[in-house]
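Issue: ligand-bound run for pyridoxal-5'-phosphate - logging full I/O for the record.

Environment: standard queue, default settings, no custom constraints.

Inputs:
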Amino acid sequence: VSAKAARTCEPPISDLIARALHTPGLISFAAGLVDEEMLPAKEVAAATRRVFAKASGRLALQYGTTPGLPALRQALVAHIAKLEGQPAARMGFDADDILLTTGSQQSLYLIAEALLDPGDIVIAANPSYFVYTGTLASIGARVLTVPMDEQGMQVAEVGRLLQKLDAANELSRVKFIYCTSFFQNPTGLTLSLRRRRELLDLARRYSRGHRILVVEDAAYRELQYDGRALPSIKSFDRANQYTVLTQTFSKPFAPGLKLGYTVMPPDLMQQVLRLKGNHDFGSANLSQWLALDLLRSGAYRRQVQKLKKQYTRKRDLLLRAMRDSFPPGIQWTMPQGGLYTWVTMPANVDTGPNGQLFARCLAQGALYVPGEYAYGPDAHGQIDRRHLRLCFGQVRTRDIKEGVARLARAMTAVLGKGEEAGRG
Ligand SMILES: Cc1ncc(COP(=O)(O)O)c(C=O)c1O
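Outputs:
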């Protein structure tokens, strides 16, 4: 096989999902899946009937174009403008700057492919969305990480890292900064308004010999439950030069459509379109026609509202159950949106798949994602193993309390063992 194939690993979570499927009665907080009972089957059936009642039915069954359905890209300009709270005309991009892809994952992949040679550098938060850091490793990129705090990625640390790379003559290898700016996977944390501007400023300032982009992954943006809606980093990039913004229909609507959309600078678009042309010359046209109908008919908006209510309920249930039953010494994030909370155990606990906590949770019948999957080595080469990710998207409402009780029993047992809480 090629060097690239040899470098490419299966995402670690595949194994976790397989375990969940094969363990009856298991309550899984692991996979980042959406609430199955809420999936909008009726709404999509109605949209399908509408699309096929007209001439659009035949068009939807034909090949589309590589960038995707123009009317949908136009509708998405208006959709993003609404999220930004700005008139579409002021955003600095139009439908030609939007690419429709097979989920936002494909777009993230194509951007990496368009920009990175083996040995090139991407700067990312620690922890980060591990499927994408896996993609970057497969392409041969070096992912250099900076820590996070309650305000999201520590942008001052990005500045220090860029300075260090500049001093070491490595700036030419830095191609982009990857940032999940809203309700991050895996921590649930959001990049503060101030840091949004600062990150863009840094990218601009260090774009000397070549451009350093900010790749802003906003997959969870629309699933906001409380707090103030923030503008994207992209919204500050008035000339559409330094940022790529990826969004998706997967999390706020239905992953089965597998449809994502990306705003990017025109010169990058040309490169990415060539690559996408080689991959598939366009994503599923039928999904695009359905998405257009769902946006125009208001069914999309109503579904997002419903989901927000349901996920608020589930998040609150989860956080309350954790507060009531987790043993002392454990901390977790309070996400204002998205699907995850991030739990920090005392320093001597190893949450990894070979550690005691994971084994005890499985024995109790509960599953989480070990935090180490989302961690790259820090500046000292260390990987943090104290964390775990809990997803409240897929777990059934009626199972949340029991699932947390199972986690709590395993935690209490491991913490009670003191010295032996470490590697198992
Ligand atoms: C942070 C983040 N970005 C992107 C994606 C990709 O999703 P999709 O390809 O379905 O749009 C996911 C999926 O879990 C995600 O968590």
